[in-house]
Known about the structure:
Radius of gyration: 24 Å
Distance between the termini: 9 Å
Strand content: under 5%
Shape: globular
Helix content: over 70%
Largest sheet: none
Low-confidence stretches: none
Amino acid sequence: MIMLKHFAVKIIWLLFVLWGVSLISFAVIHLAPGSPTDLQTTLNPMAGEAARARLEAIYGTNRPILVQYWDWLIRIIQLDFGNSMSADARPVIEKICERLPLTVSLNVISMGLTFFLAIPIGILSAWKRDTLFDRIITIFCFIGFAMPGFWLCLLLMQHMGLEHNWLPLSGIVSLNFHDMTFPEQIADLCAHAFLPVLVTVISGVASVSRYMRASMIHVLEKPYILTAISKGIPTRTILFHHALRNALLPVITLIGLSIPGLIGGSVIIENVFALPGLGQLFYSAVMARDYPLIMGNLILGAVLTLLGSLLADLGYTLADPRIRKTEGL
């Protein structure tokens, strides 16, 4: 009961934070140069100031910004994200839901592989600290962490796509996808997703494994671990039973902070590989100054960020009894 009350208070506080994020985001995107009417009037020699004024009246951008924000906030409370300002004028929520499955699927796979590989690498690197194995892993991690994602994308596309024609370079399916058998469709999807997932996993493993190594080294220097080693307790028991639980606390934070990346962490990769995901949709919305679509993406990212923070707090509470005792849970 106390724990439920504790997290209810956190949720109420997060709602206030979400309101603040929405207010700042709405103001910032309207302060940016350009407007939704620019693309429809600037490049059209037949469109004059009267046409621009009519469009601004239709979109409501000629009203004071506080009035626009109030109307948008009322709609959002009713879970109405409005309609896109692009030519199709489709509902924002419809466009987001159309692109969401691809982005979430790719990032869930990437995140799962990242933590599956990074945690054991970090543990072994900490246990074999300052050995040849640790130095080799450190070099590879620094290289992977330092490489820009877009540069690695282009390098892999050049090597695996253009030079050797091993993998497709763009899109998520081939043009004849619907004519394939089911096993061929699965193989085609995997071939198209391989390079985007590989780029994300390389940078993710390089980062997470360093956190895991540093945390594990800190725990392995604790007196109770040294006592366990002196008693001759098997290495596997020391690492995975005594040390791992405490060493995972910083990684729990990373997992929580990685949740927003499920929808917003692949903007560059989706544009480089021409993947029809949410990252590409967000980039197009920013270029077109499509305010409702931009705000829809930002609010979805903010909600996931706050949800990740809440889940990280919950993970801390479950993993560390000292936190439960401190907060009276």
